[in-house]
Amino acid sequence: MLRIENIDMTRCRREYEEAIYEDLAWLGIAWEQPVRRQSEHFDDYRAALTRLERDDLIYPSFESRAEIGALVAAREGHGGWPRDPDGAPLYPGSAAALSAAERTRRINAGEPYALRLKMTAAIARCGTLSWIETGMTSAGEPEIVAAEPAAWGDVVLARKETPGSYHLSVVVDDALQGVTHVVRGQDLFRATGVQRLLQALLGLPAPIYHHHRLVLDGDGRKLSKSNRATGLRSLRQSGASAADIRHMVGLG
Fold it and tell me: What are 174-224's pLDDT values in tens digits?
């Protein structure tokens, strides 16, 4: 199954999507049709946000990234500030304390905002959560892993211009598409805690998860555009075959 996760319309372009189709076909990989494109299903994510709003589990924050950075810097000067598993600082603002009237006024005035999950309230509602993991286990057997969503603080679930974050849209899509097994890289292992919490809040089923090792560069870093890692298209142009790529990632 192939899903095009293009919910961020400011960065996603149709030519990138076409390149994915071409590269996968070149590798000999086929997929079910039709392909689910997140940009065609914004109503599904808005419906999930409406349910969370009805349960008083989300709130808008209005600080810019620069303002959040300044708040974090001020707090770190007084003994440090906690960070999430990816190294980003937890939300340091006080938007959750704004009155409903003030939130409405600022939204109606057109101010940019992010919709954040009330993490403490959400955890109190759902209690202890876990998931079944078949990847990062000692003997390759399924194990129960405790979810730790609190490590991420009041995560962003949507923005004014984007009706859903990765966390929100992926759990909605998985449920609507009947996904039973999620196979992905170890870099998303800790994020599963947030997704399990959202599944519980929205009454969605929990898939089985398998987090596999990453393909790393010579310095031990995961491949990424920000590190100018060599992409599949460049490998193709340099003469690599589909069999070469499969061997490179350990598929034999």
Answer: 999 999 999 999 999 999 999 999 999 999 999 999 999 888 888 888 877
With beta carbons less than 8 A apart as the criterion, state whether 72 and 91 touch.
no
Can you give the pTM of this predicted structure?
0.91
Q: Which of 26, 25, 45 is nearest to 36 (CA)?
A: 45
